[in-house]
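Data deposition worksheet. Section B asks for the primary sequence of the deposited chain exactly as it was used as input, without tags or linkers unless they were present during the calculation. Section C holds the resulting structure in token form. Section D is free text for depositor observations; keep each observation to a single sentence. Incomplete worksheets are returned to the depositor.
Section A, Depositor: J.P.
Section B:
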Amino acid sequence: MVERAAAKERAVIVQLDFGREDLAEQLAEVRLLTRSAGAAVCAIVQGSRHSPDAATYAGKGKVEEVAAEINVHQADLVIFNHELSAGQERNLERRLQCRVIDRTSLILDIFAQRAQSSEGKLQVELAQLEHLSTRLVRGWTHLERQKGGIGLRGPGETQLETDRRLLGIRVKLLKERLARLERQRGVQRKARGRGELLNVSLVGYTNAGKSTLFNALTHAGVFAADQLFATLDTTTRKLWLGEAGHIVLSDTVGFIRDLPHSLVAAFHATLEATAEADLLLHVVDSASPARDDQIADVNKVLAEIGAADVPQLTVQNKLDLTGLPPAVERDEYGRISRVRLSAVSGDGLPLLREALSELALAKTRDLQDLRDLQELRDSRERAAGAATVQNVDRILDSDGSP
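Section C:
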């Protein structure tokens, strides 16, 4: 597994500009990612390129600049806010004589720290090992000439071959364990059925305030903090809405730009509950200048997990940072499309509860309409069946008469 970053590590961040307009937002996000991982940012090295350097991603001059910052600040970690190949990572570590990680490794590290449930830990370990497997091809070739170790290697097996084999065995075991848990959940869902309660799932960009909103609505006490990926494990509670009765509300992991595919795959079983929801509360940080891009990033991940067609209600959170008043917005057909509120201050929460009540009552009416329709069909089928029996009886009576 990729080792978790130790607290108090001093990190140099490398951010290159390839022509994107959201550079400031990218820098702010990687700083928060670094802080969430437990490291301190001691320097930021920026630069512009048309394309990544094949050997070091940043190029010779920029690598020398990073080396100088390492020496000045006595840094022990370099974080590239980009995706590095195994070869680039190895070349950088050789030239900088310092540990180098990329954006994927940084996010995986945070997930490793946040995972609480047994399943969450298995999912994170699987994602880490899947990522590590891409590093064994080139990154560990210096081990190839080492001789076999006692009790581990097969005849004539190199260290690299042993590492690959053992990693493969562990990955297979993790997948089998997660598959068993997924089957168990499938049986439980089948036993419960979809039910008559409105099933609502909170989704959103990480640090948009999902868990804070969840706690404000349910008083569940889910951990919430001003850091990325504060919540990994799904939490589900019933929420009472007066006349509308109960609904089921779930809080799960937040999304982020360029979320590692290994994480999406590993957490797919957990995230599938989102795809089965009746409604998604898409929580948006209304104070973020990158909110439109964040909405697009969330919708991209939702499409990956099969939740693109689930109806959404946008919740513009953090109004306390914008000065805007709470409000409910409707589309041209009168349907609720957006609620503005502050989960921290509570302003606008009654509006959200009213919106959820309206949607829950609509589902109840739809279910009643379906039951009425089914009852009508059943009665017609019974009537048709009775008529058929009567016709058969008349035919038999006619055939049997002298």
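Section D:
Residues 116-189 form one domain.
The chain has eleven helices and eleven strands.
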